[in-house]
């Protein structure tokens, strides 16, 4: 079983890992599309006829339970590839992806995307590696939900989001990092399998420790090294 938390550099986003020629070829196969806040990019259960590359903006990945509740599974950001597993697996989409902020994207029809992969064999390995990384991340998250307390689980999420956010927006002069995706307490709770009340208490505790600052749908990590150490603390 994977460790519930392991400090490591965040993986390079799909788009950033492509070279100039590969980006040009994929852009030529795509059409640009924008999505406003709260707009769905893809729906769970739909046919898989295209993939999406996020150029700008953040989105949440959710899955509907049998009881009708939406569970947050992941957050995707600039440069990430969306809906590729359903296209390559030839199956309906397993989750809904919804814009958390205004999004600019490239939409690539399924046939053109697979043709692009056939013409650029090294990108096949990149896509496979991305899939494996996401499976590992999901396994770590599930393990943490069982073995770690609420404050540590929240700290793990915030460390991950801060490390990803700083790849796109530099830290403030004081070293603080504003987290890119504007997640509500309910969304954070769904992602870390905790109630809104648990998230609120954990946020208050992290604020008292001077690790974060918060506003409405805004979290700023004030001290990433200390937050990372807090996330690794045992029960």
UniProtKB/TrEMBL annotation:
Residues 14-134 form the Cyclic nucleotide-binding domain. Pfam families: cNMP_binding (PF00027), HTH_Crp_2 (PF13545). The keyword Cytoplasm does not apply. Coiled coil: none annotated. Keywords: DNA-binding, Transcription, Transcription regulation. GO terms for molecular function: DNA binding; DNA-binding transcription factor activity. InterPro entries: cNMP-bd_dom, cNMP-bd_dom_sf, Env_Response_Regulators, HTH_CRP, RmlC-like_jellyroll, WH-like_DNA-bd_sf, WH_DNA-bd_sf. One of its GO terms (cellular component) is cytosol. Residues 148-225 form the HTH crp-type domain. The keyword Nuclease does not apply. This is Crp/Fnr family transcriptional regulator.
């Amino acid at each position: 079983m994977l460790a519930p938390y392991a400090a490591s550099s965040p993986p390079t986003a799909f788009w950033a890992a492509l070279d100039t020629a590969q980006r040009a070829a994929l852009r030529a196969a795509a059409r640009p599309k924008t999505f406003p806040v709260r707009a769905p990019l893809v729906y769970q259960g739909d046919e898989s006829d295209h993939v999406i590359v996020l150029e700008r903006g953040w989105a949440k990945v959710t899955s509907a339970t049998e009881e009708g509740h939406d569970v947050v599974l992941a957050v995707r950001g600039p440069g990430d590839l969306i809906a590729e597993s359903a296209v390559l697996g030839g199956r309906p989409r397993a989750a809904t992806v919804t814009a958390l902020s205004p999004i600019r994207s490239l939409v690539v029809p399924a046939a053109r995307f697979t043709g692009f992969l056939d013409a650029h064999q090294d990108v096949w390995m990149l896509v496979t590696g991305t899939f494996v990384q996401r499976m590992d991340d999901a396994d770590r998250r599930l393990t943490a939900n069982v073995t770690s307390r609420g404050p540590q689980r929240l700290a793990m999420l915030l460390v991950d989001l801060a490390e990803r956010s700083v790849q796109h927006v530099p830290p403030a002069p004081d070293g603080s990092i504003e987290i890119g995706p504007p997640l509500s307490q309910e969304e954070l709770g769904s992602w870390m399998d905790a109630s809104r009340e648990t998230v609120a208490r954990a946020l208050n505790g992290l604020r008292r420790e001077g690790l974060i600052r918060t506003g409405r749908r805004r979290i700023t990590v004030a001290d990433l090294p200390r937050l990372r150490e807090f996330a690794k603390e045992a029960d």
